[in-house]
Amino acid sequence: MNIVRAGFYTSLATAARLLAGLVAIKLVAWFAGPEGVGRLGQFMSLMSLLAVLAGGGISAAIVKYVAEYRDDPPRLSRLLSAALCYAFCASCLMGGAALLLSRQLAAWLLGDPGYAGLIRVLAVAQLGIALLNYILAVVNGFMDVRRLAFIQAGGALVGIVMMIWLARWLHLYGALLALVLGQLLWLAIALPAWWRSSYFRRRMLRLHYDREMTLRLATFSVMTLASALLPPLVNIAVRDHLALQFGWERVGYWQAVSKVSDAYLLFFTAAINIYYLPKLASTHGREALLAELRSAGRHVLPAVIVLAAMVYALRGWVTWLLFTPEFAAANALYGPQLVGDVIKVASFVLSYLMLAKAMTALFVVSECVFAASYLALVWVFAARYGLVGAMYAFALNYLLYLAFNLLVARRYLGGLRR
């Protein structure tokens, strides 16, 4: 399967996930206004953090090693048993921590200790979310793109129904609760779909500690944790800083434009994640890797440029459709954000080379450095240019990250034999 066919299947799943995300944003904007959208961003960042930590941050490692070991059943069995054990232990640890700190987390992120019950639901849900991420990673590692798309699309549609029902009943609290419960309902689709696959074996659900495989997963998960944990943490810090400078209402404008970017970029990041990580992990040789990277450049970049231009041209209509008239001030923020989006996708294609080839130290250091540089740039540019300065910081930071990844890719490929 090539990137075009993979992109077709992932686009179907992404459309469903996109619709689910837009329904959530629209309902929160309707019931709670710009301030509620800002709070929604904080809670979604917490969900991302806990979901990654609960599973031990090994989803990408599972994808990589399943792609490498799928023709070696004994090693594959050892890997998956160790991965499930790793994820179970991490889920219990992080769920317990979230339960103990539920009031503090609610007060810090949502500004109201009354949301502690919601944090507790999220904490208890970590076991189910970790199992879901394990299943999706295994299916992805076998490059079963159609089955993965079916699970994601079905789960997203179930989540939409849950979101509408709970938001109408409990407003902002219900919308946030639906984000958690919707993830658990995915299992009702994921488990049967996985069981019916040709590669499913009962031993894939066995928990067993394997020192060698656990060390492989732990080493690789350091990279995944860095890439998955730093963005939500950085975004939380950025929101807090912007809220202190400009108030939560204006943070809602920033969050709205960021969510529009996340929504349409989901088509590209999903295809890159589903196709390129297992593909690059199982591809060796300079020419073969170059061919894959060039293919991504030819197919992905022109598409993201066109879509970003369309979003900019229709930004007034997009804001009106997805939010409310209160968000009209957000239209001035789209330009630099969309330029940054294009640069971001270009840098992601190259950064997956570090993930696929387990360049652990370099990847982790780069993630930390560019997270810090983004915070610094937001601090400086927001003080100088106002709220739009956060968008300038976003675009410039990804331009620097792209330059770094070009250097890394050139050096790595230059060291391979033809």
TrEMBL record:
<feature type="transmembrane region" description="Helical">
    <location>
        <begin position="44"/>
        <end position="67"/>
    </location>
</feature>
<dbReference type="GO" id="GO:0009246">
    <property type="term" value="P:enterobacterial common antigen biosynthetic process"/>
</dbReference>
<feature type="transmembrane region" description="Helical">
    <location>
        <begin position="338"/>
        <end position="355"/>
    </location>
</feature>
<dbReference type="Pfam" id="PF13440">
    <property type="entry name" value="Polysacc_synt_3"/>
</dbReference>
<feature type="transmembrane region" description="Helical">
    <location>
        <begin position="299"/>
        <end position="318"/>
    </location>
</feature>
<feature type="transmembrane region" description="Helical">
    <location>
        <begin position="148"/>
        <end position="167"/>
    </location>
</feature>
<dbReference type="InterPro" id="IPR050833">
    <property type="entry name" value="Poly_Biosynth_Transport"/>
</dbReference>
<keyword id="KW-1133">Transmembrane helix</keyword>
<feature type="transmembrane region" description="Helical">
    <location>
        <begin position="256"/>
        <end position="278"/>
    </location>
</feature>
<keyword id="KW-1003">Cell membrane</keyword>
<feature type="transmembrane region" description="Helical">
    <location>
        <begin position="114"/>
        <end position="136"/>
    </location>
</feature>
<feature type="transmembrane region" description="Helical">
    <location>
        <begin position="388"/>
        <end position="408"/>
    </location>
</feature>
<protein>
    <submittedName>
        <fullName>Membrane protein involved in the export of O-antigen and teichoic acid</fullName>
    </submittedName>
</protein>
<feature type="transmembrane region" description="Helical">
    <location>
        <begin position="215"/>
        <end position="236"/>
    </location>
</feature>
<dbReference type="InterPro" id="IPR044550">
    <property type="entry name" value="WzxE"/>
</dbReference>
<feature type="transmembrane region" description="Helical">
    <location>
        <begin position="79"/>
        <end position="102"/>
    </location>
</feature>
<feature type="transmembrane region" description="Helical">
    <location>
        <begin position="12"/>
        <end position="32"/>
    </location>
</feature>
<feature type="transmembrane region" description="Helical">
    <location>
        <begin position="362"/>
        <end position="382"/>
    </location>
</feature>
<dbReference type="GO" id="GO:0005886">
    <property type="term" value="C:plasma membrane"/>
</dbReference>
<keyword id="KW-0812">Transmembrane</keyword>
<feature type="transmembrane region" description="Helical">
    <location>
        <begin position="173"/>
        <end position="195"/>
    </location>
</feature>
<keyword id="KW-0472">Membrane</keyword>
